[in-house]
């Protein structure tokens, strides 16, 4: 189990030599492990951050970064993947400022109040997010596919002053919540110059103030509202800028041109921390975000081809589909330079298969949580990306521990550990500030982090721990299998049996016994798949995570 926390960022008045000083002698320069404190430290260069006491919103910080970004004339900030409608940078900035004025003067929103945002990924959504955060209002984006009961729970958690919603959502929210329908005449007036009347006053918002309330995925229980500060998001933007500088520096040393500003296809919803952060990152660096209202694999391939997309953030199933898809081979995907993988562990076999099919596409693996404001670790540059199976090295300003639950021992490189399932904030955050992530993982001797599986999803077979992701990687590597998921099935004798749900490739005649044998060849006997069901699709969250609870319930209800 990996626990992480952000160490206090450096102050800008510190000399640069101090900001990038080498680690203390007690910290291993290779792994980042400090034997004295049993803690892993980030070995990434520490970039410059604004002083913590300076009032500053993440929107203002992103725009300050944008002012120094190498913006190509005519480069759009946003593009709608379905229609091709683009929002150039000058228009984007003007629309943010105009809408901020309308929110301040017409709606009377003030710093610290919460605005629920429940809509697909429309072009208006990033404008709204930036406008809200620029005046210190807390953005709380939620899934437009949720039910009335789920919205009632989220409203109890966040207590919004107003909700900006898609038309079909308004009727599902509690009646006491004031709603503004995005795209309506009311919203258009707020976003117009006359609606705003004037630019809002500069709000003295502390960096420690909450910028966003994001909801956890809820794949193992009811969603939780996670408060993320302006400082959290500023530090993450700075981290991405540092990584870009590292890649550019390495390219220059190799006598190569640095990569161009990214054109990022964002099929991940903007209410998820991954999509939310990708837009912040893209805007702050003067890049282009191509937004999809909802994920569709073939539509995503078309968008890559049409808009010459260079960066694709995605969950592992998308990468698996690209390897096995004839449609992917028919499309011109030559613009694609990087695919960023998050949301679940990526198996070595699948990564190597992808590299064989798309040798010019760099796989960047990363790991983060809503509770950590996004990235905890990532690979940076082509060399690190060759560490298949790893999610990279700790991000700057981070420390981590691997903890054995049975003994409380803090483990070193190569040792795996985990702790219990936190259900409350008190259990999630330790008294001394560590975040318990709920993941089974380890660091190797070179400081690369490996995620074995989610502790909450481990299958308990006769007292043995069986990680579903390990079995899924094996199944997904078979050419006859389009997709697969493994879940626990209750059994009186064993406790739980590993059960596989499998989507066959079109035309494949794979049998249950062949699936069982496929896994059995590669794992210890206790890890074998013992039940199989063939289905047309694996249910997933909007961020691409397998909905294991749904599959487990389906298996039991159907007596499979």
TrEMBL record:
Top-level taxon: Eukaryota
Entry keyword Plastid: no
InterPro entries in the cross-refs: AMP-bd_C, AMP-bd_C_sf, AMP-binding_CS, AMP-dep_synth/lig_dom, ANL_N_sf
Cofactor: Mg(2+)
Pfam families the UniProt entry points to: AMP-binding (PF00501), AMP-binding_C (PF13193)
Domain named AMP-dependent synthetase/ligase: residues: 73-418
Enzyme Commission number(s) from the entry: 6.2.1.12
Recorded catalytic activity of this chain's protein: (E)-4-coumarate + ATP + H(+) = (E)-4-coumaroyl-AMP + diphosphate; (E)-4-coumarate + ATP + CoA = (E)-4-coumaroyl-CoA + AMP + diphosphate; (E)-4-coumaroyl-AMP + CoA = (E)-4-coumaroyl-CoA + AMP + H(+)
BP-aspect Gene Ontology terms: phenylpropanoid metabolic process
Chain positions covered by the region annotation Disordered: 1-29
The name this protein goes by in its record: 4-coumarate--CoA ligase
Species: Oryza meyeriana var. granulata
Species classification: Eukaryota, Viridiplantae, Streptophyta, Embryophyta, Tracheophyta
């Amino acid at each position: 189990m990996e626990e992480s926390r952000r160490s206090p960022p450096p102050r800008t008045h510190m000399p640069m030599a101090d900001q990038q000083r080498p680690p203390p002698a007690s910290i291993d320069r290779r792994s980042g492990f400090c034997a004295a404190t049993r803690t892993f430290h980030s070995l990434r260069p520490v970039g410059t951050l604004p002083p913590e006491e300076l009032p500053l919103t993440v929107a203002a910080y992103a725009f300050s970064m944008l002012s120094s970004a190498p913006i190509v004339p005519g480069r759009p900030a946003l593009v709608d993947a379905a229609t091709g409608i683009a929002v150039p940078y000058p228009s984007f900035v003007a629309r943010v400022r105009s809408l901020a004025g309308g929110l301040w003067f017409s709606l009377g929103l003030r710093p610290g109040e919460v605005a629920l945002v429940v809509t697909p990924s429309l072009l208006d959504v990033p404008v709204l997010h930036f406008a809200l955060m620029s005046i210190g209002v807390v953005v709380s984006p939620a899934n437009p596919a949720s039910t009335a009961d789920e919205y009632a729970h989220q409203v109890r958690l966040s207590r919004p002053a107003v909700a900006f919603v898609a038309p079909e959502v308004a009727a599902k929210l509690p009646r006491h919540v004031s709603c503004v329908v995005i795209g309506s005449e009311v919203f258009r007036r707020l976003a117009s110059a006359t609606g705003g009347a004037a630019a809002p006053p500069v709000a003295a918002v502390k960096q420690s103030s909450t910028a966003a309330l994001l909801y956890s995925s809820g794949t193992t229980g009811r969603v939780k509202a996670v408060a993320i500060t302006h400082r959290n998001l500023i530090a993450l933007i700075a981290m991405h800028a540092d990584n870009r500088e590292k890649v550019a520096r390495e390219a220059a040393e190799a006598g190569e041109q640095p990569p161009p500003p990214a054109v990022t296809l964002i099929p991940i919803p903007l209410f998820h921390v991954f999509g939310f952060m990708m837009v912040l990152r893209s805007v702050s660096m003067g890049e282009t975000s191509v937004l999809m209202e909802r994920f569709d694999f073939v539509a995503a391939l078309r968008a890559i081809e049409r808009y010459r997309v260079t960066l694709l953030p995605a969950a592992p199933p998308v990468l698996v589909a690209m390897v096995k898809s004839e449609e992917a081979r028919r499309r011109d995907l030559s613009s694609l330079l990087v695919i960023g993988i998050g949301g679940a562990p990526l198996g070595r076999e699948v990564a190597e298969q992808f590299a064989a099919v798309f040798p010019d596409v760099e796989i960047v693996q990363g790991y983060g949580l809503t509770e950590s404001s996004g990235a905890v670790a990532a690979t940076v540059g082509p060399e690190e990306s060759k560490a298949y199976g790893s999610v990279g090295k700790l991000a700057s300003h981070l420390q981590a521990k691997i903890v054995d639950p049975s003994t409380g021992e803090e483990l070193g490189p190569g040792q795996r550990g985990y702790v219990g399932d936190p259900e409350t904030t008190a259990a999630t955050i330790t008294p001394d500030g560590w975040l318990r992530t709920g993941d089974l993982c380890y660091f190797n001797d070179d400081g690369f982090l490996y995620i074995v599986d989610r502790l909450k999803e481990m299958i308990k077979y006769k007292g043995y721990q069986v990680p579903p992701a390990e079995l899924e990687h094996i199944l997904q590597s078979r050419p006859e299998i389009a997709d697969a998921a493994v879940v626990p099935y209750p059994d009186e004798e064993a406790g739980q049996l590993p059960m596989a749900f499998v989507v066959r490739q079109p035309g494949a005649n794979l049998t249950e016994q062949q699936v069982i044998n496929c896994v059995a060849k590669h794992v210890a006997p206790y890890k074998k798949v013992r039940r199989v069901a063939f289905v047309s699709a694996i249910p997933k969250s909007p961020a691409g995570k397998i909905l294991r609870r749904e599959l487990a319930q389906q298996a039991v209800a159907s007596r499979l």
